[in-house]
Amino acid sequence: MVDVGAKPHSKRIAVASGMISVNDNAYSKILSADSKKGNVLGVARIAAIQAAKQTSNLIPLCHPIALTRVKVDFSLDDEKRTISICVQTENTGQTGVEMEALTAASIGLLTIYDMLKAVDRSMIISDICLQHKEGGQSGSWQRLP
């Protein structure tokens, strides 16, 4: 692992997002919170939070960090039948929280896939990316539109 021991503690924030496209049947299950496995977005939110907390166990050489906040939001597009996830992770520490935000977004979307695969195997997960980060030596960064 990279030695971060000499780095000063600073407030760090990262925002990651992604999207999943589903068919009409799967979309209606999300809207009605009526899939066989339960409330899809509720379970996906918990999965995303758990994933953020477990990132160092999933990604080799990733530092274990004490997260101070994980915020998970979903937005639905009725016309395109897509669900977008946006995850914000925060801590005060010596290394950033980008991997935690990206992992959480990925696992949140994979959970939606898992919960709905019985009604739609054609789902497409896409556009997982870092949107914003701040803190640390490199300062702030923002994805351009």
TrEMBL record:
Keyword line: Lyase, Molybdenum cofactor biosynthesis
Enzyme kind, highest EC tier: lyase
Catalytic activity as recorded in UniProt: (8S)-3',8-cyclo-7,8-dihydroguanosine 5'-triphosphate = cyclic pyranopterin phosphate + diphosphate
Enzyme Commission identifier(s): 4.6.1.17
Matches recorded under InterPro entries: MoaC, MoaC_bact/euk, MoaC_sf, MoCo_biosynth_MoaA/MoaC, Mopterin_CF_biosynth-C_dom
GO terms under biological process: Mo-molybdopterin cofactor biosynthetic process
Pfam families on file: MoaC
Function (record text): Catalyzes the conversion of (8S)-3',8-cyclo-7,8-dihydroguanosine 5'-triphosphate to cyclic pyranopterin monophosphate (cPMP).
Molybdopterin cofactor biosynthesis C (MoaC) domain sequence ranges: 1-136
Pathway: Cofactor biosynthesis; molybdopterin biosynthesis
UniProt protein name: cyclic pyranopterin monophosphate synthase
GO molecular function: cyclic pyranopterin monophosphate synthase activity
Organism of origin: Snodgrassella communis
